[in-house]
Amino acid sequence: MKPKVLVTREVFDETLAYLSEHCDVESNQEDVALTPDALARRTADKDGVICAIPDRIDAALLERARGLKVVANIAVGYNNIDVPVCTARGILVTNTPAVLDDSTADFAWTLMLGAARRITEVERYVRNGEWTAWRLKQWMGIDVHHATLGVVGMGRIGQAIAKRAAGFEMRVLYHNRKRVDEGIERALKASLVSLDELLRESDFVVLQVPYSPETHHLIGAAELAKMKPTAVLINSTRGGVVDDAALIDALKKGTIRAAGLDVFENEPNLDRRFLELDNVVLAPHVGSSTEATRRAMAMTAAKNAVAALTGGRPPNLVNPEVADR
Ligand code: DGY
Asked: To 10 degrees, what angle do helices 101-116 and 119-127 make?
């Protein structure tokens, strides 16, 4: 008998074809998020679940899924999964690192450049038919080239963001739990500084830390107050790393100049006050969303699940201690 797998959201044909070779697949290809109860009910008799950021794999669901062996997230972040409970129950948890680093870094830069050059404002202006004349002082933005970039969280994606700064001849600062390899620092021409120094010095602050209780509201009113009034904040990692109410206040008062946001607290029901602000570029959590990358993420998750269910070691284990037991 093949192991039973639930795929919670729409994936690609090749993902399902690959999974079906190895597993008995039940999938939600309607692509409407399952309610917590439907998700728990449909996971209850499965050996594996392939899920995504909006699916909460919590203690209550895990309690019902007594035969579950693997939770394969289609994402690098996994704050939607109760990893300690999975680990305690001997359930493997996997994610999709590496395949999305470059696309996600590109998108952080999209937000940076977009916020600096006011791309959403000028685009609206042209579309609305308001463009009647060229003016010297029209829609002036700020320069990205030769500015100071501050990357908070120098993991793989943070490094990919910093790497792109060379072409813009930027000074690169970073803040991280620990210093990155000296060779990497040298290649990126990046200097480790305290969070305070990074906030004080940077023209562009890009957040790339995973979300956890430790990083909840890492950037709140006090941190925003430390930033330059000309600075731009980019959140391309997870909602909750920024205190959105404090950011709205800072954007309104001009504490900082602008923001570029791909993620929000309580997304997709973001604080509607963001919609009234011109100095913020908004995106619907699409940092990794290029066709090639999303295909690679789905296939990576499928391969992780199949490895776990066929006696192999999934390549992208979040809790390797379970496999090592
Ligand atoms: C991730 O991989 O964590 C992204 O946020 C999903 O797009």
From this structure: 70
Banded model confidence at residue 31, pLDDT cuts 50, 70, 90: confident
Find how far residue 255's CA is from the centre of its chain: 25
- The rounded distance, in Å, linking the Cα atoms of 119 and 213 is 34
Tell the residue nearest (CA) to atom 6 of ligand 1.
75
271 in Cβ contact with 245 (< 8 Å): yes
The amino acid that residue 249 corresponds to is D
CA distance 51 to 74: 6
Decide if 99 contacts 297 (C-beta within 8 A): yes
Please indicate whether residue 22 is annotated as part of the active site.
no
The type of residue at 265 is E
Q: Using one digit for the tens of pLDDT, what is the confidence trace for 286-317?
A: 999 999 999 999 999 999 999 999 999 999 99
Query: Bridge partners of 81?
Result: 57
Share of the chain above pLDDT 70, in %: 100
The atom number, within ligand 1, closest to the CA of 78 reads 3
In whole angstroms, give the CA distance from residue 38 to residue 30.
Answer: 14
Q: Is the CB of 239 under 6 A from ligand 1?
A: no
Phi-psi region of 118 (alpha: psi -120 to 50; beta: other; left: phi over 0): left
Best residue for ligand 1 mutational test, from 55, 99, 100, 285 (most atoms within 8 Å of Cβ) = 100
d(CA 78, CA 86): 12
